[in-house]
Specification:
- Pfam families: ACOX, ACOX_C_alpha1, Acyl-CoA_ox_N.
- It is found in: Peroxisome.
- Residues 493-676 form the Acyl-CoA oxidase C-terminal domain.
- This protein is an alpha+beta fold.
- The chain is built from 23 helices and 13 strands.
- The chain has 2 domains: 148-291, Butyryl-CoA Dehydrogenase, subunit A, domain 2 (Beta Barrel), CATH 2.40.110; 293-624, Butyryl-CoA Dehydrogenase, subunit A, domain 3, CATH 1.20.140.10.
- It has helices at residues 21-28, 34-42, 45-59, 74-94, 100-110, 117-130, 133-144, 292-322, 341-376, 383-411, 413-417, 423-430, 440-460, 494-521, 526-531, 534-562, 567-587, 589-594, 600-617, 621-626, 632-635, 646-654, 668-676, and strands at residues 150-153, 169-173, 178-182, 190-191, 202-211, 214-224, 237-241, 254-258, 261-264, 274-275, 281-282, 324-327, 334-336.
- The strands form 4 sheets. Strands 1, 2, 3, 5, 6 and 9 form a 6-stranded mixed β-sheet that branches. The chain has a 3-stranded antiparallel β-sheet with strand order 4-8-7, with no helix packed on it. It has a two-stranded antiparallel ribbon with strand order 10-11.
- Strand 2 and strand 3 (178-182) form a beta hairpin.
- The chain binds ligand LTMAUQNL and flavin-adenine dinucleotide (FAD).
- Flavin-adenine dinucleotide binds next to strand 1 and helix 13.
Length: 680
């Protein structure tokens, strides 16, 4: 079945000409209407077409070009990203893109780590979340009009994960009604905040509040860093770029020191905690409410794991259809490498995961907006669940997406190692997501702690009702149950798949809880007992998060079925969901075998079913990546071009290499010629 209507995306960057015949054939053989799946992914036809208009505008605009990015120095890359920021602002005005959603769409289409990312992603949300109505009235119009540019300055040279250990102090001076910000040690230097080094005029600084020698905990403060006239740092402020990084060259991650910098009292963001003129301190309604922007960003990061992985898979799948190696038998034509089972086994689970994460993203967005609605009504009851769930999902999704990009790169052979494949920079720019907004391992501890607590409560109080995704912790009888998927067919039953994931998660939680008790019985206090089970806690958090992802995928398909989605689309989504479920059981088989939940009676049909699923996905693979609807601009890859003219594009892009500007190598005269022409 061919697609119901054609995508409206231009073929940019690729070398024009007749499309690759294999890709054309693959596209013609899809079993489902690709366009309908695109509408499903992006929230309907109207929204898809809107996104395409923006994507087209960006892709055809020379200011947003990416093709020469590999040949620019760090400084040039930073300047170029500022040029893009200016143009982004011009386009907002020109095309009347004033809504937050339009601007987000435009930034996503530009597809670069712009030095205003922190301004829109954390600075403005912190003012919205933590500022009083008056503070919002004062700063939001300036920030939204880019009259000031801000960032989120929390991490320090010596302190990142452990926020309570931050050293920057904000001491309240009652006599002048000011806070005095100071960096008392080298390790108190703010270090890492994006756009802090050179771009930001302001920032929200997290500092420990001290009033009359009393420590009141870490709070957010609005601080101006640079003159709005000439961009020079203000008195008492030392600020700069932290230097070369693994990648992320367009972003000026910065350092910042305060030497007794005074700010007015109303520059503490006081929505939840307040300092009155006389120095009276009012505590916030929840001790972690000032961490809310991080929870927001973790939810955002979960959403982007899908699109990032989808890009890598799109590149690898298209290339694997164009690339041919070896005939099966002599005299036959060479095979497309995607026909090889190993290539399918590497790529299709990642394709399935990109779709799975799409539904996880929808789920966490919904959970986050419910949480915000509650918070506005001073109801913080959902915060622990929101924090724990987002911490676990942020870790699982970024870990899998990071490893997945590298798998895609390796599966493209030598050309995957070329930066022109787009995969090395996708990987290098993405992997810090495992670290920023909470180191993944540290985040896993948060979720595991939450699960252990709930498990303990459920054990102590039989009949206790726990929230939806953790309700399995009530059912310790589940531990006695075993898998009964003894045929390939039974492995396709979502109830059985979910049972396996629930059982594994519960087992690991129960095991951790038992070990905690055992460590304490050996004489350790609770703190040291927790230290003794930390690597198991990471496993617990991952196991639970896998369950959440699968549960959402299964539920989403059920909802789509109920809302009348067509059979071919449901069929292909179900196949992807099955592969996701079975692949990650296969990947962690030890967990399931260790406690006798599975035996070889079940693993043989499991492996066989996975092979069948790979075969089932093969004819739809190109259509499934096409449905993500990326422009060539967004992919930035010679291997992933929509028209499949991979070799032509690689060859043309390579010509831009500065070394190719002259026929004779730079340095030839000094370094090569002397020994070539030296007498023997
Ligand atoms: C739209 C965007 C576009 C573009 C963006 C562009 C680029 C983005 C790129 C990068 C941006 C990066 C930004 C950053 O990295 S900002 C810095 C982020 N830093 C962190 O994430 C630090 C991680 N550490 C923490 O979050 C906490 O310190 C930690 C949770 C590890 C521990 O906190 P603390 O020591 O204060 O608490 P505990 O004693 O451990 O726990 C007490 C209690 O509180 C609960 N808790 C902790 N955090 C939260 C929270 N956020 N919400 C709710 N509850 C929380 C914790 O679970 C404990 O509960 P209980 O066990 O019940 O007592
Ligand atoms: C690209 C990038 C952008 C960033 N942008 C910003 C920004 O805009 N604003 C900002 O404020 N910050 C920013 N950061 C900082 C980032 O938030 C921190 O690096 C992150 O929170 C991790 O903290 P850390 O560096 O202190 O790691 P550490 O906590 O020092 O972690 C190092 C290792 O120790 C382990 N570890 C730590 N604590 C424990 C524990 N209790 N038990 C067991 N193991 C532990 C970790 O798992 C990890 O393996 C950015 C970082 C990067 C890389």
């Amino acid at each position: 079945m061919s697609s119901s209507s054609k995508p409206n995306l231009p073929v940019t960057n690729a070398v024009n000409g007749p499309p690759n015949a294999d890709l054309v054939r693959e596209r013609g053989a899809a079993s489902f209407p690709v366009r309908d799946l695109t509408y499903l992914v992006y929230g309907g036809q109207e929204r898809t077409e809107h996104l395409e208009r923006i994507a087209n505008m960006v892709a055809s605009d020379p200011v947003f070009r990416k093709t020469d990015r590999f040949f620019l120095s760090r400084t040039e890359q930073y300047r170029r990203s500022l040029e893009k920021v200016r143009h982004y602002k011009e386009l907002i005005a020109k095309h009347n893109l004033h809504s937050e959603l339009d601007q987000q769409d435009l930034r996503q289409a530009i597809d670069e780590d712009l030095p205003i990312g922190l301004h829109v992603g954390m600075f403005i949300p912190t003012i919205v979340g933590q500022g009083t109505d008056e503070q919002q009235k004062k700063w939001l119009p300036l920030a939204r009009a880019y009259k000031i540019i801000g960032t989120y300055a929390q991490t320090e040279l010596g302190h990142g994960s452990f926020i309570r250990g931050l050293e920057t102090v904000a001491t309240y001076d009652k006599s002048t009604q000011e806070f005095v910000l100071n960096s008392p040690t080298l390790t108190a230097t703010k270090w890492w905040p994006g756009a802090l080094g050179k771009t930001s005029t302001h920032c929200v600084v997290f500092a420990r509040l001290v009033i009359s020698d009393r420590e009141c905990g870490v709070h957010p403060f609005m601080v101006q860093l640079r003159s709005l006239e000439n961009h020079e740092p203000l008195k008492g402020i030392t600020v700069g770029d932290i230097g070369p990084k693994f990648a992320y060259e367009t972003m000026d991650n910065g350092f910042l020191r305060f030497d007794h910098v005074r700010i007015p009292r109303d520059h503490m963001l006081m929505r939840f905690a307040q300092v009155a003129a006389d120095g009276t301190y009012s505590t916030p309604p929840h001790s972690k409410v000032s961490y809310a922007t991080m929870v927001f960003m973790r939810a955002y990061i979960i959403g982007t794991a899908s699109s990032t992985l989808a890009k890598a898979v799109t590149i690898a799948v298209r290339y694997s259809c164009v690339r041919k190696q070896f005939p099966l038998r002599s005299g036959e034509p060479e095979q497309q490498i995607l026909n090889y089972q190993n290539q399918q086994a590497a790529l299709f689970p990642l394709l399935a995961t990109a779709y799975a994460f799409h539904f996880t993203g929808n789920y966490i967005r919904q959970m986050y907006s419910d949480f915000v609605r509650g918070m506005r009504a001073q109801d913080f009851s959902v915060l622990p669940e929101m924090h724990a769930t987002s911490a676990g999902l942020k870790s699982l999704t970024t870990w899998i997406a990071s490893a997945g990009i590298e798998t895609c790169r390796a599966s493209c052979g030598g050309h995957g190692y070329s930066k022109l494949s787009g995969l090395p920079s996708l990987y290098a720019n993405y992997i810090p997501a495992c670290t920023y907004e909470g180191d993944n391992t540290v985040m896993c501890f948060q979720l595991a702690r939450y699960l252990l607590k709930l498990y303990g409560k459920a054990q102590a109080k039989p009949g206790l009702r726990l929230p939806g995704n953790v309700s399995y912790l009530e059912k310790s009888t589940l531990l006695d149950e075993r898998c009964d998927a003894s045929t390939e067919e039974l492995w396709l039953d979502p109830a059985r798949q979910l049972h396996a994931y629930r059982n594994r998660a519960l087992r690991l939680v129960a095991n951790c809880a038992n070990r905690l008790v055992a460590e304490m019985q050996k004489g350790k206090d609770e703190v040291l007992a927790v230290e003794a089970i930390k690597s198991d806690m990471v496993k617990v958090a991952k196991a639970h998060s896998y369950y959440v992802v699968l549960n959402n995928f299964v539920n989403a398909i059920e909802q789509l079925r109920a809302s009348g989605t067509s059979t071919p689309i449901l069929r292909v989504l179900k196949t992807l969901c099955d592969l996701f479920a079975l692949h990650f059981i296969q990947a962690d088989l030890g967990d399931f075998l260790e406690y006798g939940y599975l035996s070889s009676l079940h693993t043989e049909p499991l492996h066989a079913q996975i092979r069948r699923l790979l075969e089932a996905i093969r004819p739809d693979a190109v259509a499934l990546v096409d449905a993500f609807n990326f422009t060539d601009h967004a992919l930035g890859s010679a291997l992933g071009v929509h028209n499949g003219r991979v070799y032509e594009t690689l060859f043309e892009w390579a010509q831009q290499e500065p070394l190719n500007k002259t026929q004779v190598a730079p340095g030839y005269h000094e370094y090569i010629k002397p020994f070539l022409l030296a007498k023997m």
